[in-house]
Amino acid sequence: MILTFEYWFLFPISVIIATIAMATGIGGAVFFSPIFLLWLKLEPTVAIGTALLTELFGFGSGLFAYWKAKLIDFKLGREMLMLSIPAAVVGAFIGDYFPPDVLKAIFATGIIFVGIQIFTSWRQEQKEKLNKEIADDSQTHHASALTDASGHTYRYTVCNRSIGAIFSMVGGAFLGMISVGLAELMEYQLVAKCRVPSPVAVATSIFVVVITVLVASVSHFIGFAQAGSEAISQALSIALFTAPGVLIGGQIGPKVQSKVDPDKMKAAISILFLAVGLLMFYFLARP
Predict the structure, then answer these.
(1) 2 lies in a domain?
(2) What DSSP letter does each residue of 79-121 carry, written as one string?
(3) pLDDT averaged over the chain?
(4) What is the pLDDT of residue 9?
(5) Which domain holds residue 181?
(6) Are 171 and 90 in contact (CB under 8 A)?
(7) Cα dist. 140→125, 134, 196, 278 in Å?
(8) What CA–CA distance (Å, rounded) separates 190 from 199?
(9) With 80 as the cut, is the pLDDT of residue 183 above it?
(10) Nearest CA-CA partner of 132 in 230, 44, 62, 198
(11) What is the three-class DSSP state of 143?
């Protein structure tokens, strides 16, 4: 196994991507996979596995911050992981059996779907209104209570657990197969459907995503090992520069979040995803 330094230019790109990802709560793999597929022209399984490995470092940095803030609902997270982990493993291994162009088409479809969902999910005032409703409803009756590091207590009742379970399973499968689908939509589902306060929803979703991404990455690297040392060398050579980049960007992102309009940023990102998905279909359709 030989590591190379030819991917040095991915370091500054990774800082920028991780900053955007942590500022919006969107998984970094959804940005990295198109770069690896369209720009570096990696094989889809290598591109997706490497994107997941990179996302693991970025979200891991955020997870540590939320763990210190004591905002993670570990009980709810474990329930979701019971379905997302096996689904991610199945998705990762199923992806190896698809022809490269079919996997690219699935990814293009997935990224367009994510773009549409982000654009239509909610606006900031809707989120604030929903959080107020959750807090008001929980004053008289609640099944869960979580006190964060600052002493603030969140009281809530998790509703529609079946919807959360289905979402965890489907999202985990798509994350394992094409690296997108779980992080981008989980916060909305937890708040809007399961009635979890937004700070707890964000922290818990990152916890679920990090563990699921870790398992999916291991599954992909098992596939790399079977394919030969060249695939592993290529993935690790890229991660050599993307991993430190996302660690730095992961610390910058929360600071950027407080200075930009979240609605405008999400709208811009959703349009970008739609454009990337359509561009991938264009390249696939070319003879």
Answers:
(1) no
(2) HHHHHHHHHHHHHHHHHTTS-HHHHHHHHHHHHHHHHHHHHHH
(3) 79
(4) 93
(5) 10-285
(6) no
(7) 24, 11, 16, 49
(8) 11
(9) no
(10) 198
(11) coil
